[in-house]
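Hello,

Our lab assistant flagged a job as stuck in the queue for most of the afternoon. It eventually completed. Since we weren't sure the result was trustworthy after the delay, we are filing this so someone can double-check. Below is the sequence as submitted and the structure that was eventually returned. Let us know if re-running is recommended.
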Amino acid sequence: MKYFFILLTFSVCSQLALAQSAEDSVKMVINQMFEGMKNADAALVKSTFSDSVIFQSIANAKDGTVKVVSEDPVAFLDFIGKQARGAADERIVFETVKIDGDLAIAWTPYTFYYNGKFSHCGVDSFQLVRVNGRWKIQYIIDTRRRQGCE
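-- returned structure --
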């Protein structure tokens, strides 16, 4: 009976370590993307994306309707590559990371600063896929607002 509990404890600890390692690797890819943004390194940002990455934002129109706006990842990379180092500074907090096999999600509240000045805040929702053993960002959707950004 004593060996059963030792084996059970070892098994649970091993699973927790694997989950933590996978979570850390998901966070690493997302952090690399933001490091690339801050350093105006479009190649680093691109390396974090899958070949078919999708960008969308939730926007509120002037008439109060909510719209989902698709953005061009190539145009985003072009924008990043033309910035001065430090110009695009998005600061995130990992609130939730969930993993099931080769699928991961991350929910990251953020505050965005442009050229050192507050621009907006919101939440980024990431979907990642593990391709050939490496996490890649497949889908990003975000909210954007200027109020309620404490």
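-- support follow-up --
The delay was a queue issue, not a problem with the job. The result is valid. The chain is about 35% helix and 45% strand. The mean pLDDT is 90.
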